[in-house]
Each structure stands twice: as structure tokens, then as C-alpha cells.
Design a protein that fits this description.
alpha+beta, 37% helix, Amidase signature (AS) enzymes, 464 residues, eleven-stranded mixed sheet, two-stranded antiparallel ribbon, 14 helices
């Protein structure tokens, strides 16, 4: 069942939270030894929390009420009673005293944190770390599940939970969603209040929902979206619930499609699958063309801004724990520490110019669509792709450019599954809308989901 269906059962008292927790535990114990998506378990605490919800009064009539639904929490987020490792041995014994802002909101609205999901060490789009090992893709465990929300995506795809949290800097919600055949949304900056941070004004990083279908993601976004003074960028909730926008989706009038944003290489099979899918917007009366903004400068701007963020957040660890940090993260921190003011000024200018070009595009288009990832899921023993179509890449994040360049805009973006490669691996399509048009993006994604056959089509039997 979808999360929406199960929450309806919870509201009617046709199923109990305890029953759902026990069903999830059974599934986790059966499947997770193969996938390794949920290494941090909260089974006994989840049982107690479920019992409390089952004793509670009738649920309030508010958008996003989850009513005792078991969910997975990414191991970059704090959950009271559980460790938060960030995938790093430095934090292997880190046990926060309380749930963070994002998690506590979900718990107040009836989310039961049944387990925490595996992540890359600090950041990255392939989920492996020295604390819990590698997460396999449920469609083929010899392939990557993506990252950094790879454990969340794999848990959803293999039917262990109904909803899961994620966060996104350069594609950490969207890439694992695409690789695991589920839905992941990077909301508008400020749409979901973030946990406390030493960089509270950073606009690159957001929290967001993951589910097996668009309606489930809208339900979770309704639960997450609120205004909180602890995040100075947070926005008021929308007047119209996101779930309503999905139930009655309005089609876009004009959609622009590009396979590569005009700045990089894309696997030809991935591009063909996405182009065939996006043309289906025409079935709903939309005009589909190949127009897109000029994204030149996006590579340089994001690389510089990301490195500055890493230096600000993780720089102090380098002096004390260099021997316990993976080489990719060391490179990113040092890049940030070594950049000068001229590089930062240029990065900000490039981002601003890019945003103005994107706004010009949205003056005559409603949606920009492109593949989520330039390559299909690669082998789990490969740290990251080094070539696309024979062209050598210059850093460990270059292959993620289709997601990280869109991050620079601050616009809402969602990844929806639209097909399978010849090897049977999922392919995702990104759908981006105007700033703060989260409802329009969800509506377009719902129509794309209706036009395909991939909603909740997950691998119930995991390939080994």
C-alpha cells in the first residue's frame, strides 16, 4: 500500500500503529541483511511510540498528519535515543540528547522513527562508509543506490518503510530516488525548516521528502512544511495543502526539455528514456519543446560554493581527525580553505547571472525537465564514475552536474521514475518549476506518474 492509503487506515482505526511497526520490523529483518539500508534500528522505542499513538484521541484535521506511520530517518539527522554517525568513525558513538527540528516535527505529526538509514561519509552520491559499509540497490545489489539519501531510497524501494527523510545539497534526494525507482523532492529553499547549523543562511542545502509515489511525497511535505524561527530561511506553509495539488493536478502549459542542460555528457540510453517520457506531457495539452536556460558557469559556481560550505562545516575536523576522513571529503574541505575572495565573488556572480537566465526562461515556460543523472547506477565497488561517454571527469562530483546545477537556482525540483534501462535499472526524470512553485512541480510529477507505469513499481524480491 502507499503511505496515503495506510494513513487513511490509521485515521479510521482500521489498522493500528503497532501492527504497522511489526510489519515493518518483519520486512526489515528479512530484507535489510541483503540491502544494508537501515543499519541503526529503533525497534523497541518504535513499539512504545506506536502504542502511545494507538491510545491517543482522534487525529487532528491538519495536512500531513501521519498518525503512527513507521518512517526511516537519514543518518544525517538526530533522533532522540539513537546514534547519529554521518557515516564517519569520528561520530560512531555520537548520541544526541534530542531529535532535531526536522525529525521532531515529523514525530509530533505521528511519524514513528523505526530506523535510521545509511549514508555516505559526510556527503556524496554513493552510499558507503567505514562505519556500516555499503548500501546495495534493491534492483540489483551489485549496483549503487546513489546518495547521500541512498539508505532511505533503498529502504523505500525494497518495501521496508512507507516514507523516509532525505536532504539535498547537490542531488542527495534526487539521485538515489532516480537510481532506486522512487520519488524524491528537493523543495524550495525554506520550505522545510532545517536542523540547527553553523551555516543557517546557506541556501544550497534543504531537507525534503522521499516516497514510492508522488502522492506520498506530497503527504510528507505537508507534514514537514512549516515556519520555524530556528531556520531563518523558513517559509510559512502554503494556503493549499500539497496533497490537494496532487489530487487535482493542473497540467503545465509549456515544458522545456534538455538532455544535458547544454553543459555536459549524458548516457544515450538515459537521454532517450527521459525524452520519450517528457513528450507524454503533450497528452495533457502541454506544449513540449527543447528550450532551456543557459547554464554556463554552473559547474564552477557550485564547485566553489560547495567547497566553501564544506570548509565552514567540516573544516575544524581536518586538524583533529584527518586520518579518519575519506580522501574525497579532505579534497573538498581543502579546496574551500584554499579559495580566495576573488573565487568566491566570481562564484556568487555566476550564480546570480544563472538565476536571472532561469527566471527569463520561466517567463515563457512552466516546467524545465531533464534526466536526473547522466549515467545509470554504477557498480558498488566503484567510488564514483570517472568517465561519461568516454569523456574524463575532473572531480568526484562532476557526474552529478544535472542535479547540482539546478540546486543553484533555489527552485523546487522533483525526480520521478520514468523507465528502466536494458539492464533493468531505473531511470529518473527531473522536473523543475519556478521559485516556490512546489505545488506546480508536484502536480506535473503526478501527471508524469499517471502517464507511465512506474508508480510504486518496486522490486519486492531483491536481486542478489
Amino acid at each position: 500500500m502507499t503511505a496515503v492509503q495506510v494513513v487513511d487506515l490509521l485515521k479510521r482505526r482500521d489498522v493500528s500503529s503497532v501492527e504497522l511497526v511489526e510489519a515493518a520490523i518483519t520486512r526489515i529483518e528479512t530484507i535489510d541483511p541483503i540491502v544494508n539500508a537501515l543499519p541503526i534500528r529503533r525497534f523497541e522505542l518504535a513499539r512504545k511510540e506506536a502504542e502511545a499513538f494507538d491510545r491517543s484521541k482522534n487525529p487532528p484535521a491538519i495536512p500531513g498528519w501521519l498518525g503512527g506511520l513507521p518512517i526511516a530517518i537519514k543518518d544525517y539527522n538526530d533522533v532522540e535515543g539513537s546514534i547519529t554517525t554521518y557515516g564517519s568513525p569520528i561520530f560512531a558513538d555520537n548520541r544526541p540528547s534530542r531529535s532535531d527540528r526536522t525529525v521532531s516535527r515529523l514525530q509530533r505529526l505521528g511519524g514513528i522513527a523505526i530506523a535510521k538509514s545509511n549514508v555516505p561519509e559526510f556527503a556524496g552520491s554513493h552510499t558507503f562508509n567505514p562505519v556500516f559499509g555499503t548500501t546495495g540497490n534493491p534492483w540489483n545489489v551489485g549496483r549503487t543506490a546513489g546518495g547521500s539519501s541512498g539508505g532511505s531510497a533503498a529502504a523505500l524501494a525494497s518495501g521496508m518503510v512507507w516514507l523516509a527523510t532525505g536532504n539535498d545539497l547537490g542531488g542527495s534526494l534526487r539521485i538515489p530516488a532516480a537510481y532506486c525507482g522512487i520519488v524524491g523532492m528537493r523543495p524550495s529553499v525554506g520550505r522545510v525548516p532545517r536542523p540547527d547549523s553553523v551555516v543557517p543562511y546557506d541556501p544550497l542545502w534543504v531537507e525534503g521528502p522521499m516516497g514510492r509515489c508522488v502522492a506520498d511525497v506530497a503527504l510528507m511535505l505537508d507534514a514537514e512544511a512549516h515556519q520555524d524561527a530556528g531556520d531563518p530561511l523558513s517559509l510559512p506553509p502554503p494556503e493549499r495543502p500539497f496533497s490537494e495539488a496532487v489530487r487535482n493536478p493542473r497540467p503545465p502549459k509549456r515544458v522545456g526539455y534538455t538532455s544535458n542542460l547544454g553543459i555536459g555528457e549524458v548516457d544515450s540510453e538515459v537521454a532517450a528514456i527521459c525524452e520519450q517520457a517528457v513528450r507524454k506531457f503533450g497528452n495533457f495539452g502541454a506544449e513540449v519543446d527543447n528550450d532551456h536556460p543557459d547554464f554556463s558557469g554552473g559547474f564552477e559556481s557550485f564547485q566553489t560554493l560547495r567547497a566553501t560550505l564544506f570548509a565552514a562545516v567540516r573544516g575544524p575536523l581536518l586538524e583533529r581527525h584527518r586520518d579518519k576522513i575519506c580522501p574525497e571529503i579532505i579534497w573538498n574541505i581543502e579546496k574551500g580553505l584554499q579559495q580566495d575572495g576573488a573565487a568566491m565573488a566570481r562564484a556568487e556572480r555566476l550564480r546570480g547571472e544563472l538565476f536571472l537566465r532561469v527566471m527569463d526562461f520561466f517567463g515563457h515556460h512552466d516546467i524545465l525537465a531533464c534526466p536526473t543523472v547522466a549515467v545509470s547506477p554504477f557498480p558498488v565497488d566503484q567510488r564514483y564514475p570517472k568517465y561519461i561517454n568516454g569523456q574524463e571527469l575532473t572531480s568526484y562530483i562532476d557526474w552529478m552536474y544535472l542535479t547540482f546545477v539546478l540546486t543553484l537556482t533555489g527552485c523546487p525540483v522533483i525526480s520521478v521514475p520514468v523507465g528502466l534501462t536494458r539492464e533493468g535499472m531505473p531511470v529518473g526524470l527531473q522536473i523543475m518549476g519556478r521559485p516556490r512553485s512546489d505545488s506546480d512541480v508536484l502536480a506535473a510529477a503526478q501527471l508524469m506518474e499517471q502517464a507511465g507505469q512506474f508508480a510504486t513499481m518496486v522490486p519486492r524480491l531483491v536481486k542478489t
